[in-house]
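hey
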């Protein structure tokens, strides 16, 4: 029977949990400490978290750098676009100016050609017009008709300078002034009313004592005063005449 007791005793001891096998206090303490030893997995997780944070920091830094680059690139692009637009506008203005200068040059060249051609035929150039003194005499009406056939007209005197220029031709000739439509209302051949006249002393007198419907005007040469050289005369009288053609 004692053998059974021992057997049971051995069996009971074998069935106790491992933590209870060591009955001494030190052994039990060491066993408990071993039960709470940190797992190696904790360090791995911490390392992974640091890696993730570093990755996020790098991503944020990269994103900020890219955003700043994008802003700078956009500003630079806008500045370049503005400069391009300004240069395009300036180019167009220069092109327009060039075109205008080209037209002006062509106009001047054409004008010089016309002046040269007419001057070779005896015309005289003064202040943007060409003048020609006829070599024959005709009535005022016939004189004007001849002017029109040459794409010109009887001269219209618009200034003191032009009057002096014509005076220096030292001639007696019809000019484009008449009051044949309304007596006393002097009008130029272009329909404008006379504002400044260069009449000789006592003129216009419509013939004075020998009144005879003197409705057309001639310029004549006199030595004393170049701005008092107009005289009204009968339109049917034959005189030389002065053509005028604008250039």
């Amino acid at each position: 029977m004692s053998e059974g007791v021992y057997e049971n005793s051995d069996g009971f001891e074998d069935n106790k949990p491992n933590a209870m096998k060591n009955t001494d206090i030190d052994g039990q303490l060491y066993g408990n400490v071993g039960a709470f030893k940190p797992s190696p997995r904790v360090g791995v997780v911490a390392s992974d978290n640091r890696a993730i944070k570093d990755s996020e920091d790098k991503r944020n830094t990269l994103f900020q750098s890219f955003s700043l680059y994008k802003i700078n690139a956009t500003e630079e692009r806008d500045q370049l676009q503005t400069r391009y637009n300004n240069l395009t506008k300036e180019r167009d203005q220069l092109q327009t100016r060039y075109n205008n200068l080209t037209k002006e040059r062509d106009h001047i060249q054409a004008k010089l050609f016309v002046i040269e051609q007419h001057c070779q035929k005896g015309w005289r150039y003064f202040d943007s017009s060409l003048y020609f003194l006829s070599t024959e005499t005709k009535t005022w009406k016939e004189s004007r008709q001849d002017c029109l056939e040459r794409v010109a007209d009887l001269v219209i005197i618009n200034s003191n300078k032009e009057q002096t220029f014509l005076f220096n031709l030292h001639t007696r000739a019809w000019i484009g002034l008449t009051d044949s439509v309304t007596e006393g209302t002097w009008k130029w051949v272009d329909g404008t009313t006379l504002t400044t006249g260069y009449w000789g002393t006592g003129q216009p007198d419509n013939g004075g004592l020998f009144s005879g419907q003197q409705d057309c005007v001639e310029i004549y040469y006199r030595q004393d005063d170049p701005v008092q050289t107009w005289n009204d005369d009968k339109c049917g009288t034959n005189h030389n005449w002065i053509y005028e053609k604008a250039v």
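Residues 15 and 21 are 9 Å apart (CA to CA). The radius of gyration is 59 Å.
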